[in-house]
Amino acid sequence: MTQMLPFAAWMGSVQAEVEDALASLLPAPHLVPAKLHEAMRYTVLGGGKRVRPLLVYASGALFDADRAAMARAACALEMIHAYSLVHDDMPCMDDDDLRRGKPTVHVAYDEATALLVGDALQAQAFQTLADSDTLAPARLVPMLRMLAQAAGSGGMCGGQAIDLDSVGIALNLAQLERMHQLKTGALLRAAVLLGAMTGTELTDAQRDALGAYSSAVGLAFQVVDDILDATADSATLGKTAGKDAAGNKPTYVSILGLAASQALAQQLRRDAHDALAPFGEQALRLRELADLIVQRKA
Amino acid sequence: MTQMLPFAAWMGSVQAEVEDALASLLPAPHLVPAKLHEAMRYTVLGGGKRVRPLLVYASGALFDADRAAMARAACALEMIHAYSLVHDDMPCMDDDDLRRGKPTVHVAYDEATALLVGDALQAQAFQTLADSDTLAPARLVPMLRMLAQAAGSGGMCGGQAIDLDSVGIALNLAQLERMHQLKTGALLRAAVLLGAMTGTELTDAQRDALGAYSSAVGLAFQVVDDILDATADSATLGKTAGKDAAGNKPTYVSILGLAASQALAQQLRRDAHDALAPFGEQALRLRELADLIVQRKA
To answer: Would you say residue B243 has pLDDT above 80?
Structure first.
């Protein structure tokens, strides 16, 4: 049914639905402590490509997922993602002033508030998923476990730590890939699998296919990020461009060069499509998202 | 059975059991990213009074709780507590160099690592509880929900935010109490209730009694903290003494004076005992913990 919509219209409808869900799931801005709640909403609402929510909905559609359940999973992932950006932008990390075209949280508020916003958003993510009233507990517990695993030291935080330790060090391609599999890949993979888990039971083969798709899309996402950091301007990106080279960080572009990085992104896009073969036509949205991730300009 | 042990021996056995459980639940220090995992273990292991775990075990004992389940809940709470200390000690918050008699994480490592240690520990807390293999999903989901609620902007992070906003402001007693109910009270209350929830089903009356006990103990904990900050030295506390007065922070001592604060702590201890009346002799450990919290010297 939603398969009939043109991709842009489908994407817009999911983004609008997720924005509404986030606005209602985040604590109201007048609730005490008001400044913290305002800053949490400033961080999460009104911006972002919502890539993780789109993956949840695209994957969930393959398994007849309930929309309310997909919204919970999508919002939980987006809260984790948003908190990681806030902490990543802080002076002791990347020290960035601009995010999604707006001043970063520690600039708009202060560092202590940015720290607390991130901490509170992480808790809010787990609460958002645990509070689901449409998913049975036996379904929710593995989803909460997957979210925690993807967010923690075996996932996103672990990737951040490797990233920190690799500044000024000549990583090889395998090490760079491993870092990104954790830093951004873990949460993207969780988005695809959580979307599927909100629907009917997955077979092992389906889980493997989605895992292969996620790996390809996760890496493609990062390769394109590196290409954009090297080629686009800050106004287009909505964040500071050229940071990687300035920070002496290893990237796909610095290791492979620009042309080979662009070829790699295209190869990963084909890998993502190939992984979806078992799902046939039904996987249209996931294929379109792989295309979007590779072809995006910001 | 454990009721027969003298209090100090019971406390020692719980502390040892929790230390072992934490050591096995935290990622091994050789796993990549090794520095992050080492720093997580530096933060959590080998220190702390383990007040929240003690409350879990004392409360769980009233409801025939399974020890493995209590260990999960205790470790999850202790990870949340430990992460909050790491972030609270950072330069943008309290800027403290000493914690549990050791250099704080941002001093022993660096600020970026301290930020990530806290973030990863929060995820690890939810993973620790969600990974329980002795608690049914229908039991786990409300526990995860309670943990998230106690940790987030409606609990600990919210209390931190109010604390930040109250520096240099003359809070009245009710406002100070509200701040502490969130900042430390929410997690102590969660400890008491999560301990109980690992065992047999609670009646509403039992839940109310435990809630009243938690409120009294939570406030007593903070009143005594304020008394110790004003009267003890840094070597005894294992953290910097006199920070509140130096930071112009409202405390029970600054509002009520020392003598009235001491009287209040004693009154709260009696309130905690009174709240336990419905449990009779069985609540010995919870009574002893209320005494410990009020009579502690560090």
So the answer is: no
Distance CA B251, CA B268 (A): 16
Q: Which residues in chain B touch residue A122, judged by CB atoms under 8 angstroms apart? A: 119, 122-123
Amino acid at A196: A
The CA distance from A284 to A282, in Å, is 6
Q: Quick one: closest CA in A to B175, which residue?
A: A32
Looking up tokens 């995820």, which residue turns up? Answer: B123
* Paired residues of A102 in beta bridges: A99
Residue B284 has pLDDT above 90, yes or no: yes
| Distance set, CA B123 to CA A157, A219, B181 (Å) | 9, 23, 23
State the average pLDDT over residues B36-57: 95
Q: What is the crossing angle of helices A186-197 and A137-151, to 10°?
A: 170
pLDDT tens, position by position, A85-126: 999 999 999 999 998 889 999 999 999 999 999 999 999 999
The angle subtended at Cα A106 by Cα A104 and Cα A110, nearest 5°, is 145
Q: What is the mean pLDDT of residues B66-91?
A: 97
**Domains of chain B listed by start with CATH number:** 6-295 (1.10.600.10)
Nearest to B165 among A33, A127, A153 (CB): A33
CB burial of residue A280 (10 Å; 0-12, 13-18, 19+): exposed
Who among B131, B157, B162 is closest to A145 (CB)?
B131
Q: Where are the beta strands (DSSP E) in chain B?
A: 98-99, 102-103
Can you tell me the ipTM of this complex? Answer: 0.95
Least confident stretch, A223-237, A273-287, B112-126 = A223-237
Under 8 Å between Cβ of B208 and B281 = no
